[in-house]
Amino acid sequence: MNNKQPPGSKPTTYVTKIDLNLAPKIINDLKLQGFEISKPQYTVFSAKKKGLNCTLYESGKLMVQGKETPQFMEFYLEPEILGSFEYSYADLQLDKSGRIGIDEAGKGDFFGPLCIAGVYAEGDTISELKAIGVKDSKNMNDKSILRLAKEIKKRCEVTIVKMNPLKYNELYGKFKNLNRLLAWGHSTAIENLVSKTSCRNVIIDQFAAEDVVIDALKKKKLEVNLTQRHRGEEDIVVAAASIIAREAFVTELDNLGIKWEMPLPKGASRQVVKAGVNFLRLYGKEKLSGVAKCHFKTFQDVIGEAHE
Questions:
Q1: pTM of the prediction?
Q2: Which end of the chain is more exposed for a tag (fewer CB within 10 A), N or C?
Q3: What CA–CA distance (Å, rounded) separates 189 from 177?
Q4: Predicted confidence (pLDDT) per residue in 270-291, tens digit
């Protein structure tokens, strides 16, 4: 199909060949998803529901059509049937040159650490990252994050700069600026991977003016070929780093919840403020700085509500 698509959109038609032995499972799955099943001539089945048609021909050709094709492919057909992700992640850049990708997690979360991760990959390993389903971690649930992080670590050299809340608050007091703190973390992750791999080609998801990270690298006397890019996770190695960072954040947040015997939600929402108030009343202000980022406005909201 050569239909032109708007930038960033996915094709609404997909055709592939599959093993006909999978037909009974697919039919059962589609019934559970609310499809109406029929059997036109020369087909094994045809399944329809609003926004989507799915037809398996006797030749083994499977055709998916309709505006809901991207969601169907990403959440069912690729993970459950095809076992590959060539449709969903076709836009990820598959330049196979060796490079280091850097990304962070926890920056906008009141509870838990700030984690900055680096991944080094080259050659066929980059193709493998695509095949196992690596993409921007913001589009994934925690279960997928934990599974993929394990697979990435098997294949790639990785590093994690993890700032637990006490350390984070100490460093923020020193830097007095989140972007400078992030730049220090990014440059530290880069330094770690350069020393391990000797690779000096680095891509990061840009979070501030370009000179912020450049200055942090200069302080370390570290010379690299640095690319800073908005939507950096469109590069598959940066996407892999986003998964490693997110796994480190999620794991540590869960550990803190276990330690203090209460759930610590993600983000900085109203639910987070309530959890902070409960924590403060149980354990006190001093302990709160061991699970939360004290410069957030949320910290003052928690203090204010706890004393009402």
A1: 0.71
A2: C
A3: 19
A4: 999 999 999 999 999 999 999 9
